[in-house]
Design a protein that fits this description.
Elements: E1 15-18, E2 21-24, H1 33-43, H2 54-63, E3 67-68, E4 77-84, E5 90-99, E6 102-107, E7 112-117, E8 125-130, H3 134-137
Antiparallel strand pairs: 1-2, 3-8, 4-5, 4-8, 5-6, 6-7
């Protein structure tokens, strides 16, 4: 787990201008899961671009040769179903499977990636993606 370091500041903010006003669409890390995952994948040339949403990341995964699998492998991408955070704030979640029943994804409460169990008690896994190019990396 990344604790109180420079690493905890990465992937927290993405600003856009809307009607002349600067807005942090990632809300200081609260909504950074797709940006975190897509940035890592983009750095390794495993997708075409970085994204601020899970849906855009999933689309890029599909277009970049990632396939849906039934059981996670180390390095696979997990997409969890939508969850209602109240006030009409409904979001999917995305992260990496790292093995031994563990995943790493952005923690919306802390605003940075943390390690956790890959199965959440109240949030089902919607999709697991695998790219055969990862076999070479092992």
């Amino acid at each position: 787990m990344i604790k109180n370091s420079v690493g905890s500041k990465l992937f927290r903010n993405f600003y856009v201008k809307n009607k002349g006003k600067k807005i942090d669409v990632l809300r200081n890390g609260e909504l950074s899961c797709a940006f975190y995952v897509s940035s890592i994948l983009y750095l390794f040339k495993l997708i075409k671009d970085t994204h601020a949403t899970v849906d855009k990341t999933v689309k890029d995964l599909q277009e970049s040769g990632w396939k849906i699998i039934k059981r996670p492998k180390v390095g696979s991408i997990i997409v969890w179903e939508k969850m209602d955070f109240g006030g009409g704030d409904i979001h999917k979640h995305i992260g990496f499977y790292i093995g031994k029943g563990r995943a790493i994804s952005n923690n919306y409460k802390l605003g940075y990636p943390t390690e956790h169990k890959w199965i959440f008690p109240k949030r089902k896994v919607e999709m697991i993606f695998w790219n055969p190019r990862l076999e070479v990396i092992k």
